[in-house]
Design goal:
Shape: globular
Strand order of the largest sheet: 3-2-5
Number of strands: 5
Strand content: under 5%
Low-confidence stretches: 1-7
Largest sheet: 3 strands, mixed
Radius of gyration: 22 Å
Helix content: over 70%
Structural class: mainly alpha
Length: about 325
């Protein structure tokens, strides 16, 4: 590639989900509503777990962390999209793009890790109920979350530094509503073999590893449930992991759908539209899945709101 074809990058253009002017108000209202529901719903989960002593258990500790990460995950992409629609500007600075990509990678992989840790927690609870509190003691729970954060931070930092070494051409249009790693690499004029190799290796390690852990945990859970003699015991054991299994299925099926639909459609906008499922819709639905199927969460929310109302009346 000739040197004159390269340009000093100062900004990228996010094409978004649609370039039709008439659709912009609809997209703004839709994504603003989904974002507010996501933040409010996950924030209620965090407040319920932190304020109710009945929920100070490993399962709800991991759930509150997942809800916090989902808030951060959605906040990485949606607000910038809303600002661009409102200001009728599609520009994002080079530094802003790298920062957005860094935090997106951080929180999407962290979601993956937390779902794996929660699967292990359900495995211990169902298959080793008598030793549950001994195995899942607070120190181990905190260590699992800390290791997840450190691993994800290092992964995001490494991949972001790999992108910083790339040179870009004059065409800096990203057919997405956020700075997605693969889309940025495709815009590079310099050699991207090393970047693609790193992505494949880290995807296998940080993506395939947690998936294998979840599948192994649930294979053991199914074996334990099948070995139970009581039908009521089987139902109770299954109900304790039904919400988590629903969230896992939603997250991975929507993520898998993005990567399967993209090559099939040969259309970057199709991939961007499909990615809305796991970047926006899944974090929005998680609080509903856990609160609607979980009596403890609903009880904690009722007690929290009841205390708030009583305080307001007494004052």
């Amino acid at each position: 590639m000739e040197p004159e074809n390269l340009t000093r990058v100062s900004e990228f253009v996010l094409l978004g989900l649609s370039e039709e002017p008439d659709l912009q108000p609809l997209l703004f209202g839709l994504f603003l509503s989904m974002y507010l529901i996501t933040v409010l719903g996950n924030l209620l989960i965090v407040l319920a777990v932190s304020s109710d002593s009945h929920l100070h258990t490993p399962m709800y500790f991991f759930l509150s962390n997942l809800s916090f990460v989902d808030i951060c995950f959605t906040s990485t992409t949606v607000p910038k999209m809303l600002v661009n629609i409102q200001t009728q500007s599609k520009v994002i600075t080079y530094g802003g793009c790298i920062t957005q990509m860094y935090f997106f990678l951080l929180f999407v992989v962290l979601d993956n890790f937390l779902l794996t840790v929660m699967a292990y927690d359900r495995f211990v609870a169902i298959c080793h109920p008598l030793h549950y509190m001994v195995i899942m003691h607070p120190r181990l729970c905190g260590l699992l979350v800390l290791v997840s954060w450190i691993t994800c931070v290092l992964n995001s930092l490494f991949q972001s530094l790999m992108v910083l070494r790339l040179s870009f051409c004059a065409d800096l249009q990203i057919p997405h509503f956020f700075c997605e790693l693969n889309q940025m690499i495709q815009l590079a004029c310099s050699d991207t073999f090393l970047n693609n190799l790193v992505i494949y290796i880290l995807t296998v390690l940080l993506g395939g590893g947690p998936v294998a852990g979840i599948l192994y945990s649930y294979s053991k859970i199914v074996s334990c449930i099948r070995a139970m003699s009581s039908a009521q015991g089987k139902y109770k054991a299954f109900s304790t992991c039904a919400s988590h299994l629903s969230v896992v299925s939603l997250f991975y099926l929507t993520s898998l759908g993005v990567y399967l639909s993209s090559p099939a459609a040969h259309n970057a906008h199709s991939s961007a539209t499909a990615s809305v499922l796991y970047t926006v819709v899944t974090p929005m639905l998680n609080p509903f899945i856990y609160s609607l199927r979980n009596k403890d969460i609903k009880g904690a929310l009722k007690r929290s709101f009841g205390m708030t109302v009583q305080k307001g009346q007494s004052s």
